[in-house]
Model the fold of this input.
Amino acid sequence: MLSLSATASPVSVPPVISQTSPIVRRWLCVLAVSLLALLTACGTTKVQPGYYRVQSGDTLTQIARKQGTSVNDLVRWNNLSNSNSIEVGQMLRVEPPAGQARTSSAPSKARGKPAPAPKSSTSTAKRRTAPPGAISLVWPAQGKVTRGYDGSGSNGIVISNSSGTPVVAAAQGTVAYSGSGLRGYGHLVIVKHNASFLSIYAHNSKLLVKEGQRVSQGQKIAEMGNSDSKQVGLYFELRYDGQAVDPAGSLPPR
Done:
């Protein structure tokens, strides 16, 4: 993993309660390690010419189109093993290193119409859903869904509204995590619903629950904000057996 630079802010990962299930502990460990590895990229250093800092909601295909290059080039220049495995704050090389050239499949910015992404087994992520009827959720906040789940760059949804909008538990459960020690998620709450399901509520302005606390469905657990985010909104994610799934399949229609 990357070592912390002198300019990076120290981040401590809070302990998780002992009652937390192996699924929760495993997810928190993976999340913490991946986010700590990005500290130098997410710090105060400026983006150097020829590089791009991954933003919330970005996918490699979108970045390639914006930068006038191809997904294959980005994968090659950044030694990526999976074109779907990019993280918020990650620095990507978007210009060829010395001695290398762009591939002929790179789209042209001047044409205004991006070329389609190259076909590969990883170019399109499979949409995952929870088993029908496995869990029944309520909407965690009022507002407009401004970003949806796509299973690759976006493993959850973003609900936008004004700062202070109530954030509620989508289903009953136990608070497995409440804090701000995970870089990129701001003030974060994770609720464990049962042995299989977790829900994640990020970028809040205020947290109203503590680890180990039981919460009921619809109970206010936080207030919407923009901690570690450029815009006010709730990032909501649902996980089934450790995998992010599309919450739309378990949320009621609006």
